[in-house]
């Protein structure tokens, strides 16, 4: 008479438990991945409804660039920085500037509604080259160019390689010097975005599902000590949280250093009117190693250091930024008069 399971029965039950454990090891990660993919799809759907309306397009070298324009008078071109778009200016200083200038705000290649430049991007200089050709095709001659954050690298390249095409520069919280071998802390993560399969996995399983939370924190950090404008937060996150924008940002971050190392040895030869507007409490681009340093290298460059201001002065101190544009235009006129009388 048998009073309990046999050894074979015990072995069968043990194997069954092992199979169930193995099944859970497969099902749980699969469920998490499915949930993250569904969340990413929902995020993209919600953000699509928040995208701002596109303005106009111009095609140069096979690349369609998006731009918004307003006003009449002397030309001013506005270039946004990292994770940005033309909204950085459309929602801040563009309306006020357009009272005295013809203002064009571009989405840099790969950002906003602009197409990515074809081929491998080795330098941010390609952004400047495409935008310069674009403004010429739109009838602009030697505009004042305003560049924010990483667009500082684009402006410095213009100032060194193509000074004849601009009448002056306004650098806002600009990255104007390479980081001397010190990588941006998140560079490793962004570099992974450039890999075909790993990048796709990171975008859909990390950046999109968590991007809203991360984006809100980054905007708060960037604007501090000032609050983030609600309309900009929605539009900014919606445009930045797209696979194409994330990949473009990864490429740009790698290119900034290469661009600046190629030109920063020539800053002493720059003769363009230049005004730098910098927040004293800028934590994204600390001014000491960037614009404060540049102010001693470019002859005649003027520095406006704003107290209790962070990285986004066009939103938080618009009057000072607009005054800088007028100042550069004034310096350009004085330079032209001096040349004419000599």
Description:
With 342 residues, this protein is α/β, with parallel strands linked by helices. The protein has a single domain (56-341), classed as Rossmann fold (3-Layer(aba) Sandwich), CATH 3.40.50. Helices cover 51% and strands 13% of the residues. It contains 12 helices and 8 strands. The chain has an 8-stranded mixed sheet with strand order 1-2-4-3-5-6-7-8, with helices on both faces. Strand 5 (144-148), helix 5 (151-161) and strand 6 form a beta-alpha-beta unit. Helix 1 crosses helix 8, helix 5 (151-161) packs across helix 9 (243-263) and helix 6 crosses helix 9 (243-263).
Question: Which descriptors apply to this entry?
Answer:
single chain, 342 residues, eight-stranded mixed β-sheet, Rossmann fold, alpha/beta
| Strand portion | 5-15%
Q: Measured on Cα atoms, how large is the radius of gyration?
A: 25 Å
CATH architecture: 3-Layer(aba) Sandwich
CATH top level assignment: Alpha Beta
> Termini distance?
121 Å
Strand order of the largest sheet: 1-2-4-3-5-6-7-8
**What structural class is derived from the secondary structure elements?**
alpha/beta
> How many β-strand stretches?
8
What's the CATH H-level homologous superfamily? Alpha/Beta hydrolase fold, catalytic domain
Please indicate the count of domains.
1
Biggest sheet features = 8 strands, mixed
